[in-house]
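#onboarding

Welcome to the new folks! Below is a worked example of what a typical request in this channel looks like: someone posts a single protein sequence, and someone else replies with the predicted structure as tokens. Don't worry about understanding the tokens yet, we'll cover that in week two.

Example request:
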Amino acid sequence: MFLGRKEVTGLDIGTSAVKLVELKHTRKGYELKNLGESLLPEEAIVNKVIKKRDAVVDAIAGLVDELKLRNKNVAISIAGHGVIIKKVSLPKMSEKELKEAIPWELEQYIPQGVEEVSYDFQILPGETPEGNMDVLIVAAKKDVTNEYVAVVSEAGLNPVVVDVDVFALENMFEFNYPEVNGTVALVNIGASITNVNIVGEGVSVFTRDITVGGNQLTELIQKEFGVDYEEAERMKRSIGGVAQISPDLDRILRDFTDLVCGEIKKTLDFFVKTLWRDGIERIMIGGGCSKIPYIRETLGGLVDSEVEVFNPFKNVFCGLDFDPEYIKDIAPKMGVAVGLALRKPGE
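Example response:
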């Protein structure tokens, strides 16, 4: 069915850009084969819902042509309001009984009806103090999933894996940081959504998509400087060090940083107070906005945890065909795409 290929290409369809990563599995591990991104026009995707179908198709197809991509089997992911992730505690039962019980559990979270979503589940290791088992249920609205699949297919690709952003992040983390133990919060700060996946003892124990991201910074720049969307995006992408920016832009960056880090802290506080009393030992951040000045320092000052920027290519051999400076610059944005590229058909 998959033409003998073991790898899939990771395709991260974000709000502001389409990112692609192709890895090759060798005897020594994974090697980077293809890498790139294509920017999307304003409001092509809003809150992870595709609004300008042709623009998204063109961006994907253009990137595929530019990179001369041969492996057209891709893994994609979705996030936002179209995805529901719940961990439920259920009495121990057989897998057959569990399959029958899951739709009843989902009904209380899906007002439009279970038939309107695609869902899957996974039994988590261990058991609760009451002797029950924890089950992770993931459901995605069919209309959202179908739209993404259709757009990717129209661009000439074959979507063989549909994942969720937060789990692609977890996949990237497990591959690149096997030595990291304890409770770790993976935070991917994107254009419209910040993905949070808290991993404890090697298992995802809490996930949440926060509807805050780089688009708010773009809007602040537009209002402050009276520029259009394209110019505001250009200004945002050109931000280097704090010493290189004007006092007005510096003030905007601090306001934006306070907003994003405040929302992340609220999510982490909720988790610690209600679900996990041992606290979070490390926070690993990524996404395009993780490079914005003050983010790492501000978040570190708000939480009692070590904060670092993750590197999706830490355990990937990048070779001589890729400029190390380019890899270093683009790496924080590629967490989801790398996690997708590590998937296998049928997962």
